[in-house]
Design brief:
The complex is a heterotrimer of chains A (164), B (350) and C (368). With 164 residues, chain A is α+β, with helices and mostly antiparallel strands. Helix content of chain A is 13%, strand content 33%. Chain A has 3 helices and 8 strands; from the N terminus they run H-H-H-E-E-E-E-E-E-E-E. The termini of chain A are far apart. Chain B is α/β, with parallel strands linked by helices and 350 residues long. In chain B, 33% of the residues lie in helices and 24% in strands. A 9-stranded mixed beta sheet of chain B has the order 5-4-6-7-1-8-13-12-11, with helices on both faces. In chain B, helix 1 packs across helix 2 and helix 3 packs across helix 4. Chain B is globular, with a radius of gyration of 19 Å. Chain C has a domain of 124 residues: Thiolase/Chalcone synthase (Peroxisomal Thiolase, Chain A, domain 1). The longest helix of chain C is centred in the N-terminal third of the chain and has 16 residues. In chain C, helix 4 packs across helix 13, helix 7 packs across helix 10 and helix 7 packs across helix 11. Chain C has 13 helices and 11 strands. Classes of the chains: A alpha+beta (164), B alpha/beta (350), C alpha/beta (368). Chains in contact: A-B, A-C. At the A-C interface, strand 4, strand 5, strand 6 and strand 8 of A face helix 2, helix 5, helix 6 and strand 5 of C.
Chain lengths: 164, 350, 368
């Protein structure tokens, strides 16, 4: 016999009293899951830091803006921002929202990308005590939020320390 | 006219590792015996926020950077995996947007157990040879499944490899290829099952060994190679023993097989297994070297490829992109509890 | 010159009011404020941040008026996140100053305790940029922590200096009958509390509380403290692209305008309520209002005599989100006349109400 053991059904124990209790307590008015079109339309920014750059003065906007501070409305896609930079400051966040409960603590870093544009991103694959302002970081592509067991998996940029 | 071949490669291995002895500790096995049987010392583990998609993106980004190919020139992206986060929803289309590729290209997910990544290479090589695309990216990636406490728990690991295939700037020309497949049920995973079933010893002689040996023998006899022609031979690596044994059966000296064996350090990355070994060999190859690459997928089939390394290899080896050695070296060990959490094997209410 | 006066007010003690619906809780405090003022109102301004997210209620004003049986008058909702209160007072002020109405009421209400703690984080995170901050898991707390770290480093302070804020707020809250926390704490309690987002600890984070506050404002009816000026300013620069992280830009702008319009200077301020949803924001608000020099708020705190947040601030009274700014207005007005609070030593008070991480600030100058 090749099939040595039977796999139990993974759905069979759904609806146990403990599970029902937790599911009940999670039912609130709070809108928990991301809108799919919202995620979809921001994919260029989430996946590869597509910014806007002013055709007149060269100023770069991330998140993208519609009008430059110089007054020009001629902004073009800047696809894409540099993937390397340095940490300006960071914090370790312990109080997190529902989508991040199983990922806590989150390291949240303000990063200055090469060229000067800054972005705030989660810092992953890192030990907080080895981080400091100036730490070199690189962009990585990671899961950001997962809409339960059946919903959409949403991806986006994060940063991690560059290993020598 | 230059031949189609590999223009650039990229490997991504998650940073986390679990030692064989830690797995053995949990399941009451003798760690020494396990290590001896599988020749696997530790295996890679993806972070909680990683999956086959994120690993594929990282490997492909590195491959494109190494190839120096602009993303507008990529005409096909093929992803081979058996760890799709979705049963229905492709990875290849995510790669288009993550890499910023054109939208009017072929984007395909493929499945043939552990062989699909290599099949992408074969498919793209054909498209390039036919002049239908200029460059294509073939990705083999997995966050391999293995039931906790079962044999596969000692080897199933996570990683990805991407190859940029084209005709311009080729670092390793594709000289020959040969395929062999049959209905041999050595390993499978049913729709909805979290872990594969396998036939233990049955995965060996009738499956892995028969198909690889037939593919290589077919290749050798059709194209007239001798075992001594191959500077390096890289095989699919479900464990450390199988590639050594199959090389021995094919009369290939051990010193030509060992450089391409990565399973000892990172475990079996399924669709990335042979391709990561191939990439590692490319990083040490010299112009004129000949590399035999043999994939294997359960169920069962094997593709054998022969590459001839060109002068371009030196430039590619020096390209500013992370090397396989870098990925192998940078690691953080986790215990079994962290491993379960990272691999999403703790049942959560969602 | 026309004047707008605070002629009546009422507060609901901040807490966990599990037993009441949001409209009833607001109606109860509004009814008390109306009785306190003894006037009829011609319009209602509702300040609420989370009625949709927490209570699935819109047109909240209509349901509040239904509870009180007040017919026909218009009810407007003003939403600026946790800065809704200050913005609603500002809107009410303008409605009176325009000459359209003679008396209006502002009621602020929110019930964050109707949802679980993690959902409160989700709800509060809606004041962040939903696409580029909230999506990635960032909250007011994470960004306040980044600012705190940079502020402390830049101005040569230790965390212990910042921890003194919570100690002072708890001391003040102990004297405020409407406060959620009415107990003093020691510096060691703050220093030994858990990290919430380092360097910030539990005591640096104001508790989210259910709360309701109401004020009745009338034009040209000299029957209470006068609203001398109002000003609201927005910071249009995303957090990641700001040039300075140790200051509240929206507050500095609003404060300059409000002081100028009121014809007073920070030296004239005898009572101030600032938005310390996170301790560092309270510190930066003290500086933004000119009550301490740039980088000097924690030194002033150490020296003592900082007359800010006699209510205990958001830290001790509680962060009632959209209701907070209305609480603050009432607290400052009452401090100026010595009602419920010790009488302030001067004629002018100032309110700072902020939405998000320095996204919008309202400054209201109140005088006798």
């Amino acid at each position: 016999m090749i099939e040595r053991r039977r796999l139990s059904s993974w759905a069979s124990d759904a609806g146990s009293p403990a599970e029902r209790k937790i599911i009940f307590s999670r039912q609130g008015a709070v809108v928990r899951h991301e809108s799919v079109p919202m995620y979809w339309r921001n994919i260029p920014q989430y996946y590869r830091l597509v910014a806007k750059r002013c055709r007149q003065c060269g100023a770069v906007y991330f998140p993208p803006a519609l009008r430059c501070r110089c007054g020009s409305a001629e902004l073009e896609d800047y696809d894409e921002l540099p993937h390397e930079g340095r940490l300006v400051e960071y914090t370790v966040l312990y109080q997190v929202g529902t989508d991040f409960l199983k990922q806590k603590p989150l390291i949240v870093g303000l990063v200055e990308l090469n060229g000067g544009v800054r972005a705030v991103g989660q810092i992953v694959d890192a030990q907080p005590d080895r981080l400091a302002p100036g730490t070199r970081v690189e962009l990585v592509f990671r899961r950001v939020a997962v809409d339960g067991r059946h919903g959409l998996i949403m991806y986006g940029y994060k940063f991690r320390p560059v290993q020598p | 006219m230059t031949r189609v071949g590999v223009v650039g490669w990229g490997v991504y291995i998650p940073r986390y590792r679990i030692r064989t002895e830690e797995v053995a500790r949990l399941w009451g096995d003798d760690p020494q015996r396990i290590a001896d049987v599988y020749l696997v010392n530790e295996k890679s583990v993806e972070a909680l926020d990683e999956d086959a998609v994120t690993i594929a993106v990282e490997a492909a980004r590195i491959a494109l950077r190494r190839a120096g190919v602009s993303r507008e020139r990529v005409g096909a992206v093929y992803v081979g995996t058996e760890s799709k986060p979705y049963a229905v929803k492709p990875i290849a289309s995510i790669l288009i947007d993550a890499l910023g590729l054109r939208n009017d290209i072929l984007a395909v997910d493929m499945e043939f157990a552990c062989k699909a990544g290599g099949d992408g290479l074969a498919a793209i090589a054909g498209l390039v040879e036919a002049g239908r695309v200029e460059y294509g990216i073939a990705v083999g990636v997995d966050t391999s499944q293995g039931e906790p406490g079962e044999h596969l728990d000692y080897s199933a690991s996570s990683g990805g490899a991407a190859l940029v295939v084209g005709r311009d700037g080729v670092a390793a020309e594709l000289e020959a290829m040969y395929a062999y497949a049959s209905d041999t049920p050595d390993f499978w995973r049913r729709d909805g099952s979290p872990y594969p079933m396998h036939g233990e010893g049955f995965t060996g002689e009738p499956a892995y060994f028969r198909h690889i040996i037939e593919a290589v023998r077919g290749l050798v006899s059709k194209y007239g190679y001798k075992p001594a022609d191959f500077t390096y031979a890289v095989f699919h690596q479900p464990n450390g023993r199988f590639p050594l044994r199959v090389a021995s059966a094919l009369g290939i000296p051990m010193d030509r097989v060992k450089p391409g064996i990565v399973v000892t350090h990172i475990g079996n990355t399924y669709n990335a297994s042979a391709l990561i070994g191939f990439a590692r060999v490319l990083e040490m190859a010299k112009p004129g070297d000949r590399i035999l690459l043999v994939t294997y997928g359960s169920g069962a089939g094997s593709d054998a490829f022969v590459f001839r390394v060109t002068d371009v290899i030196t430039e590619r080896q020096r390209a500013p992109a992370p090397a396989v050695e870098h990925m192998l070296r940078n690691k953080v060990y986790v215990d079994y509890a962290q491993y379960l959490k990272m691999r999403k094997m703790i049942k959560l209410l969602e | 010159m026309t004047g707008v006066y605070v002629v009546g007010a009422a507060l609901r003690p901040a807490g966990r009011h599990y037993g009441e619906n949001i409209d009833d809780m607001a109606a109860e405090v509004l009814g008390k404020a109306l009785a306190d003022a003894g006037v009829d109102i011609e319009a209602l301004f509702v300040a609420s941040s989370t009625t949709e997210l927490v209570n699935r209620q819109q047109i909240l004003g209509a349901y509040i008026l239904e509870s009180l049986g007040i017919d026909k008058i218009p009810a407007f909702r003003v939403e600026c996140g946790d800065g809704s209160g200050g913005a609603a007072v500002t809107a009410a002020y303008y409605a009176l100053a325009s000459g359209e109405y003679g008396c209006v009421a502002v009621v602020g209400v929110d019930k964050p305790n109707d949802v679980l703690s993690n959902q409160q984080v989700d709800v509060y995170a809606a004041v962040m940029d939903t696409y580029f901050e909230r999506y990635f898991g960032f909250t007011p707390l994470s960004h306040a922590a980044l600012m705190a770290k940079m502020y402390l480093k830049r101005h040569g302070y230790k965390y212990e200096d910042l921890a003194a804020w919570a100690v002072l707020m708890h001391e003040r809250g102990a004297e405020n009958p409407y406060a959620y926390f009415r107990r003093r704490v020691k510096l060691e309690d703050v220093l030994s509390s858990e990290y919430t987002s380092e360097p910030l600890r539990l005591y640096d984070v104001a508790p989210l509380v259910d709360g309701a506050a109401a004020a009745v404002l009338c034009r040209d009816r000299r029957d209470g403290p006068r609203i001398m000026s109002v000003a609201v300013a927005t910071n249009a620069v995303p957090f990641n692209m700001r040039s300075e992280y140790d200051t509240l830009y929206s507050l500095r702008e609003a404060a300059a305008r409000a002081y100028k319009a009121a014809g007073i200077s920070p030296r004239d301020v005898a009572a101030a309520e600032v938005h310390d949803s996170l301790s560092i924001f309270g510190v930066l608000a003290v500086e933004g209002l000119g009550l301490a020099e740039r980088g000097g708020a924690l030194a002033a705190l150490k020296r003592g005599g900082l007359r800010v947040n006699m209510s205990g601030g958001l830290k001790a009274r509680g962060n009632a989100l959209g209701a907070t700014g209305v609480y603050q207005l009432v607290e400052v007005a009452w401090q100026l006349v010595g009602r419920e609070f010790k009488r302030a030593d001067g004629r002018y008070g100032v309110v700072h109400s902020m939405g998000g991480v320095d996204r919008t600030s309202a400054v209201i100058v109140v005088g006798l």
